[in-house]
Write a structure and sequence with these properties.
By secondary structure, the protein is mostly helical. The chain contains nine helices and two strands. The protein has a two-stranded antiparallel ribbon.
Length: about 200
């Protein structure tokens, strides 16, 4: 379970967030997140969800840090842990997109092909690059991460198309799919290695 540690002085906060921060400072040892939420929700007069949201807000403001007290020791254990779930979701989404691209004419899967193909081209390459550039995801909001992912995907795929236009195969479906798989897979793997370190 994650542990919570105080990182900074108190800026302007509402009274409930101040209570949480003061109770964290008063704690003798860094509590686990689950223990803290369940033990202090009643004493703070808030629901568990409210305490968790305020802790998340304090973390986003860099006032506290939430760390894993027992991080994976090897890269293999990291790759099979919940920490790398995003990596496997990227690979599965890319695989489903490729399957829909090549199976759609046979099975009349136009709608899934459009959805998965759009994610494959317009989101996944940039998302993998954002994960590589920002290994601590707390530095970006979800909106910033999504916008950066789309923008970087457009840039990466466009640059890849320029490169493909000079190659003998040209800009056709197979080279585009191969290029996108290589870009996405390479950046995702490098991002997972960087996050592990």
């Amino acid at each position: 379970m994650s542990q919570i540690e105080d990182l900074s002085e108190q800026p302007v906060l509402d009274s409930r967030s101040k209570q949480i921060l003061e109770s964290l400072k008063a704690a003798k040892a860094a509590p686990t997140l689950g223990e803290y939420v369940s033990q202090n929700s009643k004493s703070l007069g808030m629901s568990k969800q409210s305490v968790a949201k305020r802790i998340s807000s304090l973390r986003e403001q860099s006032m506290i840090e939430i760390r894993d007290p027992a991080p994976p020791a090897t890269f293999t254990s990291y790759a099979s842990s919940v920490h790398s779930l995003w990596f496997w979701l990227v690979l599965v989404t890319a695989g489903l997109a490729i399957l829909s691209i090549y199976a759609a004419p046979s099975f009349n899967l136009a709608f899934p092909r459009y959805i998965l193909g759009s994610a494959f081209i317009f989101f996944l390459p940039g998302y993998a690059l954002v994960r590589l550039l920002y290994p601590k995801q707390s530095k970006l909001s979800h909106i910033e991460g999504t916008v950066l992912s789309v923008g970087l995907s457009l840039a990466l795929v466009s640059l890849g198309m320029i490169v493909l236009s000079y190659l003998p195969g040209g800009i056709t479906l197979d080279p585009i799919v191969i290029m996108t798989v290589i870009i996405t897979g390479l950046f995702a793997l490098l991002a997972m290695i960087r996050e592990y370190r």
